[in-house]
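Subject: sequence -> structure tokens, single chain

Hey, anyone have a minute? Need the predicted structure for the following. Not urgent.
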Amino acid sequence: VQLQASGGGLVQAGGSLRLSCVASGSTFGINDMGWYRQAPGKRRELVATITNKGSTNYADSVKGRFTISRDNAKYTISLQMNALEPEDTAVYSCAAAASWGRRYWGQGTQVTVSS
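Reply:
Had a minute. Here:
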């Protein structure tokens, strides 16, 4: 499974960005997909996940501001990020969990929120 993320960038506080991640390869085995982020000097943390049936889970820090969605036909997930805060600045990575027990990671995309 290969994951290709896009959509990061620089935005002012209060602004919005949309991240997308496309899966290719052995996509038939993908179950949960999600977004994680890692800020400088901090551990990687979960942002949001979505199952192949559409159930979602969010970090408390992004609830009400971020929305994860999924298009199973296109093997794509997206993360709509609204009301961005400087604390959201991080490298965002998409991930996919396969039915055979392996987790795959895409390359990160930088999100920078200026105050």
